Amino acid sequence: LNNAPVNMGQTLCVCSRGSITIDSKKYYFVQKLDEGGFSFVDLVEGAKDGHFYALKKILCHDRQARQEAQTEVEMHQMFNHPNILSLVAHSFVEGGGKTEAWLLLPYIRKGTLWSVLEKLREKGSLMPEKQILKIFRGICSGLKAIHDKGYAHRDLKPTNVLLDDDDRPLLMDLGSMNRARIEVRGSREAMTVQDWAAQRCTISYRAPELFNVESHCIIDERTDIWSLGCVLYCMMMLEGPYDLIFQKGDSVALAVQNPVTIPASCRYSEGLRVLLSSIMVSNAQERPNIVWVLDQVQDLLSHSPNTQTNMV
């Protein structure tokens, strides 16, 4: 092994810190954070300010993918809200016949809501009710800002919610966002919406009306309310209501047609359980809007005791 030839180029590569420039500012590569189908996220450090950032790189393999990345940038720029992840800077990088969209985002050290729930599950703990309500209120607040502008998130789930050190939730991954109200006229349009939902809306958090889209209907932002209910369920039970059904290979499309069942072992207050049941209504027309949900959460928070009992 000692006699192996040394590749100087490679050695130099390892020693020097790779750097990139966005908006005339330099950032150093620190490490890889995450990888998805057509995107990956790196941890980078600002050369000037020494702050850490998450650099999301989206591979745009065709014109449509580039347009989708551009839409994601525009969605971020539309909001300046404490519960929606802000965009620090962005750039479209051309090279070798490929285009990459670079989105520079704040780095949230604590990670996603899902990673926090996973740690609780490993410890055999539950999240205290007051903490659930506070985080949930922040998620609802971010969602209300999106709905107020006439848009829907369409892919709300615990892995798309970041939690900062103060437990403030930040909605992220705005790549599936589109206009809240979609008018479906005819079976061809219905199929287009259904196919789009199958690609962009995570199956175990997808609203019932997106599995079998009717030929003449209106899909609106209440798809997010269903997903919001799934997120609340996940915070209470440490797994999504349809995660196991999906993992077993059973039909999620069939399961979402029935009212959600709250396990008898649930240790939370009746108020929280009633809220969950009122959000997860299969018929979209009977599902509440975000203003109503926020009011209920606020009401529960104002009546919940200040003593936080850790549930084990």
Automatic annotation (TrEMBL):
Enzyme Commission number(s): 2.7.11.1
SMART domains named among the record's database cross-references: S_TKc
GO terms for MF: ATP binding; protein serine/threonine kinase activity
- Name the enzyme's class: transferase
Q: Where is the Protein kinase domain?
A: 27-301
Catalyzes what?
L-seryl-[protein] + ATP = O-phospho-L-seryl-[protein] + ADP + H(+); L-threonyl-[protein] + ATP = O-phospho-L-threonyl-[protein] + ADP + H(+)
State the name under which the record lists this protein. Answer: non-specific serine/threonine protein kinase
GN (gene name) = STK16
